[in-house]
Amino acid sequence: MPNYDFECQDCHETFEVRATIKEMEEGKISCVKCKSKNIKRIFNGFGFSTGKSSSLTSSSSSSCSSCSSRSCSTCG
Question: Where are the domains of the chain?
């Protein structure tokens, strides 16, 4: 099961949730602090494997690949 990072748009709490894709699609995720469903997914980075070793690439403050904003409709 993958881990997902979120920020609550109501109380601004950032949190990590381990959830299935089905749980994500059904909107079953809520803020761990205030229980609000008004949350936004945060994309912090990704991992990849070349076969012999693994690396983690972080993009904590960079924009998405399709625009110059940190947040847009294509970024999620």
Answer: 3-44
Say if residue 17's pLDDT is above 70.
yes
55-to-44, 47, 52, 64 alpha-carbon distances in Å: 14, 6, 10, 20
Q: Tell me, what's the pLDDT at 50?
A: 66
Whether pLDDT at 39 is above 60 = yes
CATH class for the region spanning 3-44: mainly beta
**Beta-carbon contacts of residue 35 (< 8 Å; ≥ 6 apart):** none
Let me know how many helices (H) and strands (E) the chain has, helices first.
1, 5
Single pTM value for the model: 0.55
